[in-house]
Amino acid sequence: MGATGRRVLLTCSLWLAFLLQGAKTTGNKEVEIEPEFTEPIPNVTVSVGRDVKLACVVENIGTYRIAWIHTDRYTLLTLQNRVITRNPRFSITHNGHRTWTLYIKEVEERDTGEYMCQINTSPMKSQSGFINVVVPPRIVEGNTSTDLEVRESEEVTLRCVSTGSPEPIITWRREDGQQISTGTKKVSSVIGPSLNIVNVNRHHIGAYLCIASNGVQPSVSKRIVLGVNFPPLIEVPNQVVGAATRTDVTLDCNLESHPKSVTYWTRKRNVIVISNSKYNITEVPQGLYKSQMKLRIRNLQPEDYGTYSCSAKNSLGEAENNIKLYEIPAPVPSPQTSSTPKALKPKPEKLWNGHSHNNVAKPNENGVTTDVIEKVSLSYVIQFTSSTTIVSVFC
Fold first, then answer.
1. Strand 240-243 vs strand 317-327: parallel, antiparallel, or unpaired?
2. Could you give phi then psi for residue 83, rounded to 5 degrees?
3. pLDDT tens string 274-315
4. Triad 300, 302, 306: Cα angle to 5°
5. 16 Cβ partners below 8 Å, 6+ apart?
6. What is the pTM of this model?
7. Which of 47, 106, 261, 296 allows an S-S link to 257, with CB 3.0 to 4.6 Å?
């Protein structure tokens, strides 16, 4: 006999003893009002790990007895005020009047099912309530895709497996919010346990989120990074660049590569350029597989002109492109416009023989007197030279 059969036999035996006890008790009475259920047992939905209770309300119980049974598992849980099951999570309380409450602590998924409250009348009376234990989603790591890399133009399938109750729904999205190109169309999300991409290309590079949800919080997700490998590609926005001597110039190359490439610059076809006081080499990332190679040349001299090459190499191939740097005339500075002379202002002068220079004629080195006439009202000075006379002019 299997475990299930032994459990059913035990349940039947206990319940038969329960009925016989009730029949014996009721046989001693001439007239007894039979008990009745006064309230239905509600159905309850509860998250796994929470506590739950079911109440059985009976009027006129008299000498009859109450039992709780887990119908789906054929398990007798309680008899009157006694717990029969050996599971310590189950307990029973009676308020001393008409309510018998079954308690289950920290419910598990296996506790889902029908629970029957029975009265040992003849025939037996019973009513049932249902406990639905819901389980938040969980992603099964062993059956779910991890980060992977494929060659460009191949086909790739990402898989996501989850458990929970009710059964979770899987939604695929790109982490960066861009649409997903499945080969025939572009969509913002894909529903289902698998994400299949035909003819994958570099635009598919990125992180994808597998989101499992079933209405029970919290939803869960897994991040899967898809890498698409291809040889480097270099594009030059300006293949011919002009600059004057004694100036600085920057040469640019746009690179696409995955996996990341080793990059370098050369001049005159075979001389490798390194960063120093003359050259500054940088690489600026511009996305998951794009970058910009920059070569800055300081203080251009005639020998700096010529062809420069930007090169990149990864495990799948290499690429190169050229930029020709040529000399252009230096810019001619624009002529400066002469400024308007400022108006003359009287300046304080030293005294000569105790008198102001404006009031006393001072002989020059030839003995000739220089007469200075100041026109105050017009703010200018008129000078005359004479041998003996000071001439004043008034307007």
1. parallel
2. -90, 120
3. 999 999 999 999 999 999 999 999 999 999 999 999 999 999
4. 90
5. none
6. 0.69
7. 261
Q: Please check whether residue 232 is in contact with residue 290, taking contact to mean a CB–CB distance below 8 angstroms.
A: no
125, β-bridge pairs: 119
Give me the count of residues in the chain. 395
Res 388 pLDDT > 80: no
CA distance 381 to 348: 14
Task: Give dist(CA 68, CA 14) in Å, integer.
Answer: 12
Phi and psi at 69, nearest 5°, equal -135, 135
Section 191-208 average pLDDT? 96
Whether the CB-CB separation of 12 and 100 falls below 8 Å is answered with no
Q: What is the pLDDT of residue 373?
A: 35
CA angle, residues 94, 98, 99, in degrees to nearest 5: 50
pLDDT greater than 70 at residue 244: yes
Nearest residue to 330 (alpha-carbon basis) of 243, 260, 204, 250: 243
- Here the tokens at position 94 are 């009676």
Q: DSSP state, 139?
A: E
Residue with tokens 């270099």: 234
Report the pLDDT value the prediction gives residue 336, as an integer from 0 to 100: 64
Q: Map tokens 């006064």 to a residue.
A: 38
Strand partners, 103: 53, 91
* 3-class secondary structure, 168: coil
Q: Please state, in angstroms and rounded to a whole number, the distance separating the CA atoms of residues 83 and 66.
A: 12
- Amino acid letter, 94: H
Q: How far apart are CA 338 and CA 3, in angstroms?
A: 113
> Which tens digits make up the pLDDT trace of 21-37?
454 444 444 567 899 99
What is the DSSP pairing of strand 113-119 with strand 156-159? Answer: unpaired
Q: Count CA within 13 A, CB hemisphere, residue 231.
A: 7
| Alpha-helical runs (H) found in the chain | 3-27
How far, in Å, CA of 226 to CA of 174, rounded? 10
Asked whether 102 and 90 are in contact (CB, 8 A), the reply is: yes
**Dist. CA 117–CA 39, nearest whole Å:** 12
Residue 328 has pLDDT above 80, yes or no: yes
Edge to edge, the sheet with strand 36-37 lists 36-37, 52-59, 99-104, 90-94
Contact 267, 308 (CB under 8 A): yes
